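Could you help me review a protein record that somebody else here produced? What it holds is a sequence and that sequence's fold in token form. I have pasted the whole thing underneath without changing anything:
=====
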Amino acid sequence: MTALDHTSRPDDVRPDAARALAAGAAPRRWGSWYIAEHRIRAMKGYAGDAIFQSLGNPLIYLFALGVGLASLVPQGVGDVTYLQFVAPALMATAAMTVTSNETSYPVMMGFKWNPIFFGMNASPITGGQIVNGMMIHIALRVVVTVSIYFGVIVLFGAVPSSWGWLAICAATLTGMAIGVVIATYTSTITEDRGQMAMLQRFGITPLFLFSGTFFPLEQLPIFLQPIGWVSPLWHGTELGRVATYGLDEPIWLTVTHVGYLATLFVVGLWATRKHFTRRLNK
């Protein structure tokens, strides 16, 4: 029997060779978690800045609108104060800020300017595992960010419902649904021609303004309301309002919000994994 024949039979593999094969397979089995660990460790040097950046704008808006402008809107919105109305929307916005930041330039950098994704893929780690690991890391960032934000709005008295903590889940799902869509797009970009700036101006900003964030969606002109209907931020904001103060809406609409965001996340994750794998295996 030749050496080639001997090594090709699994039953005849020597114990030391079997251990080596098992060690080589370990990164593939836990590859997603290795990627997540790598990205978490890489954040050590800028974790404070990242949290400040993620929370900065929503907190400024909370003070300016929820506290300042609210004093000029004493009647509130519906049966709640303006602060209670706007706080869940800004919480979902904080989640969107995290995921849009993490899935735009960092994804392009991993492919082009600092092609670390190719190095990861050269080890026993697949493109799909790289995506999964990134999403685990991003989800952890989102949970930390929105949890801090939730604590702030609780102190402001903007969460009268005992089910308010579910707004953390709603905001996280919202951010992740938006993040995978952006990651799907950025994973296809081969040359930087200002696409990220265009995405911010004509994608993220309109979502922020026309998703029922500062006023009920019904107050928009009818031709602008469809932006809100397809906006993940609107669906997540409405879920947050149901959780924090019991927004009165039909149960089927609440289920629709959850289903829309979950479907967007699943389809977006699948598409991102597909694009990563295809690009890394070229």
Observations:
- The chain has one domain: 31-280.
- Confidence is low (pLDDT under 50) at residues 1-8.
